Automatic annotation (TrEMBL):
InterPro entries: Alpha-catenin/vinculin-like_sf (IPR036723), CTNNAL1 (IPR030045), Vinculin/catenin (IPR006077)
GO molecular function: actin filament binding
Family, similarity comment: Belongs to the vinculin/alpha-catenin family.
UniProt KW Cytoplasm keyword: yes
Principal location class: cytoplasm
Keyword field contains Cytoplasm: yes
Pfam families tied to this protein: Vinculin
GO cellular component: cytoplasm
UniProt subcellular location: Cytoplasm
Gene, per the UniProt record: Ctnnal1
Protein name: Alpha-catulin
Organism: Grallaria varia
Entry superkingdom: Eukaryota
Keyword vocabulary terms for this entry: Cytoplasm
Example GO biological process: cell adhesion
Lineage: Eukaryota, Metazoa, Chordata, Craniata, Vertebrata
Length: 732
């Protein structure tokens, strides 16, 4: 809106219609500022330490908004009534100054609000740490139950605050790290309860103490990692050095090689040679691994040797082309570039095959959890020798899984998935056998099994081992999903998919929604809905293909399209009994969020329609209105109550059907927008300036974000109205 005001054409005369349109834009700016400032003032009243700064910024923003409204007010302009054309602004600098002040003050409000959110998270973390210290020191069950109840409430608050923050993060790497840390806290909260109870029941048992200390240590590390992400800091001023994967190394190397087509002088041959050496050094993780098959090892070594030869040939032709740019030499250079890139693609395919086939075999082999079952049986029998024997087998399993994660990281395909692989590797390390890290013990399964073997009649020790075994099984299940995502990325079916990891689960996590009974689909129901799910899967692939065509991946239309595709893919996985959506209630909640994202896309399409030529606008507006209508229907369906198994399945079917219809429309909308964008760029070099807003657009815009909605985003609204994303065992 401000851009529309500043960029208006400076003609000496304007019609009443145009002048009134600009007046409406000025009023819309003032109204929007008023709503924004209302939220800022509410935040200021609840945070006294920043109240003065926030209040000053809010006053400046309100004053600037009012100034803009006054400067665009028709009644304040002095003009002869008989003249059909009137002067718009005698001096445009007033609006420019007001706009600068407004943007400056709004930015200040946002920065202050962000500081408050960060402080809330840090304060919440400090409360959790203080209560953890009390839990470590308790000596009676009664005192433990009392303090753990308080600890549970504090963890719920912390989970809510960090979940909101995770969703707000723009950096996908930080988002993945935050999801990993919060997953550790969720699992460790359950472990902390049983490990502490076991230690209280058996205070003289060394293995029980080691078990409990490991859980507390792991939780403290995870809490610190969350704060590092939130405050964007590293301990002792260290810089985060993410390990380079083979996938990213090959991608960068190929970009440099292909760049020679445009510029023969933008890098040196030494740079290319060094890049290849780094990639080949990383392939040693595969060739040196005891778990890589002989066939894969031989192929990787052969391709590494071929890559060196292809680069030598490329450098030779490249150096000649720098001295003498003949047609024959340029053709030879093109051939050398193609052969080098083809060799690197084959190497990438080979290491991907080596990593994923190993992972698939291992996960399939360990799917029966025989070692865990044996540990439980021998523990209950009190057979320490057998426990020691299965401890060795679990150690071997852990080494295999850690190596699997290390190799998968090289072929993960995206930075978020790479971070997830690193987190999985750490998780197997700390939930596996006893490991001494510096002077601290990690959380591990073995100490829980040893404790049960020493106290075979202890129900608490048995429960504790069950919880640790469940954590191990859960991690293996997560690895199966991760492997599937890595394969999907490699085969081009999916892009950055880990966007909605903090999905709330109403039926499972909110005490106020106990009446809801979330259920899973049985095998027969999955079979009925499989065809619909497959159609949804194909549509997500089509949408991903369309979004990849856009040069500007930050475009709002692309962002919303990718988000909708990600959620639709999760719903497809649900039809197969896989993925993050575990119950029908999860699916319904995801459908609501999907519909909301679709409505946001429709708003972006409306804004885009103001920038295209008048001939193209009606079709785009019509499609946007159709999208709004379909999203509203989906929201109504998702929110409708369903009692009984048959009604619930009918609702699931309807939600997926309506989601499929929205995705079908999205597949038509994206190429249309892409075509219009290219058409405008080709015709004008840029999109035409946005015309003055119409009255109905102002009404739509002013209702899009109410003060209550903004307050909720900043965590002012009571936590009782939110759904937490953390599971807790009952303290009793």
């Amino acid at each position: 809106q401000i851009t529309t005001l500043i960029n208006h054409k400076d003609k000496p005369k304007r019609s009443d219609k145009t002048l009134q349109a600009i007046q409406r834009v000025g009023q819309a700016v003032n109204l929007a500022v008023g709503r924004f400032v209302t939220v800022g003032e509410a935040i200021a009243n609840e945070n006294h330490e920043l109240k003065e700064e926030m209040s000053v910024a809010c006053i400046e923003a309100r004053r600037a908004g009012e100034t803009i409204a006054q400067l665009t007010d028709v009644a304040s302009l002095d003009h002869p009534e008989s003249d059909s054309h009137i002067t718009i602004f005698t001096d445009k600098t007033g609006v420019v100054k007001a706009a600068r002040l407004l943007l400056s003050s709004v930015t200040k409000v946002l920065v202050l609000a962000d500081r408050i959110v960060i402080k809330q998270i840090i304060t919440s973390r400090n409360k959790v740490l203080a209560t953890m210290e009390q839990l470590e020191k308790v000596s009676s069950f009664q005192e433990f139950v009392q303090i753990f109840s308080q600890f549970g409430n504090e963890m719920v608050e912390f989970a809510h605050l960090t979940g909101d923050r995770q969703n707000d993060l723009k950096d996908e790497k930080k988002k993945a790290r935050m999801a990993a840390s919060r997953a550790v806290l969720e699992k460790c909260t359950m472990m902390l309860l049983t490990a502490s109870k076991t230690c209280l029941r058996h205070p003289d048992c060394e293995s029980a103490r080691i078990n409990k200390d490991g859980v507390f240590h792991r939780m403290r590390l995870a809490l610190e990692q969350v704060i590092e992400i939130v405050t964007d800091s590293r301990p002792n001023g260290e810089n985060e050095m993410a390990p380079i994967s083979i996938y990213s190394g090959i991608k960068e190397f190929k970009n440099k090689v292909e760049g020679l087509r445009e510029n023969l002088y933008f890098l040196s041959k030494e740079n290319l040679s060094t890049m290849l050496e780094v990639i080949l050094e990383h392939t040693e993780d595969f060739t040196d691994s005891a778990y890589t098959s002989h066939e894969h090892r031989e192929h990787i070594l052969e391709l590494s040797k071929q890559a060196k030869m292809e680069l030598e040939q490329l450098v030779s032709v490249w150096m000649q082309a720098q001295n003498q740019k003949t047609k024959d030499l340029m053709e030879d250079l093109e051939v050398a570039i193609l052969k080098t890139c083809q060799c690197m693609n084959e190497l990438k395919r080979e290491v991907h095959s080596a990593a994923t086939s190993l992972a698939a075999d291992l996960l399939k082999y360990h799917t029966d959890h025989m070692v865990l079952k044996a540990l439980k049986i021998t523990g209950v029998e009190g057979n320490l020798e057998a426990v020691a024997e299965y401890t060795c087998k679990l150690s071997e399993q852990k080494e295999q899984l850690v190596e699997m994660c290390r190799l998968l990281r090289h072929v993960s395909g995206t930075e978020p998935l790479e971070i997830t692989c690193i987190h999985a590797e750490d998780t197997f390390q700390v939930t596996g056998p006893q490991v001494l890290t510096n002077t601290l013990f990690s959380v591990h399964l073995i100490s829980a099994a040893e404790t049960l073997a020493l106290h075979p009649s202890s129900k608490i020790a048995k429960e504790n081992l069950e919880v640790f075994c469940e954590a191990w099984e859960s991690q293996l299940s997560d690895m199966s999903l991760l492997l599937r995502e890595i394969n999907d990325v490699f085969e081009g079916r999916r892009g950055e998919k880990r966007v909605y990891l903090s999905l709330p689960r109403p039926g499972k996590h909110n005490a106020n929604l106990k009446a809801l009974k979330p259920v899973k689909l049985d095998t027969e129901e999955q079979a009925k809905i499989a065809k619909l799910g497959l159609e949804l899967h194909l549509l997500t692939s089509d949408v991903d293909s369309e979004t990849e065509k856009w040069e500007d991946q930050e475009n709002e239309i692309v962002q919303h399209g990718q988000g909708m595709s990600s959620m639709a893919y999760s719903m497809y996985l649900f039809t197969r009994g896989e993925g993050l959506l575990k119950t029908t209630q999860d699916l319904f909640h995801q459908a609501e969020i999907f519909a909301t994202e679709g409505t946001k896309l429709a708003s972006a399409l409306h804004a885009f329609s103001d920038q295209v030529h008048e001939d193209d606008k009606p079709l785009l507006v019509l499609e946007a209105e159709k999208l709004i209508s379909m999203c509203k229907q989906l929201q109504v369906t998702a929110k409708a109550s369903a009692q009984g198994k048959s009604a619930t399945f009918t609702k699931v079917d309807a939600c997926i059907l309506k989601t499929r219809n929205v995705m079908t429309l999205l597949c038509q909308l994206l190429p249309l927008c892409f075509k219009l964008l290219r058409k405008n760029k080709a015709g004008n070099g840029c999109l035409k300036p946005a015309p003055p807003w119409k009255e109905d657009r102002i009404r739509t815009g002013t209702n899009a974000h109410t003060p209550e909605r903004r307050v909720e985003t900043f965590g002012i609204k009571s936590l009782e109205n939110h759904v937490t994303n953390m599971t807790f065992l009952e303290s009793k």
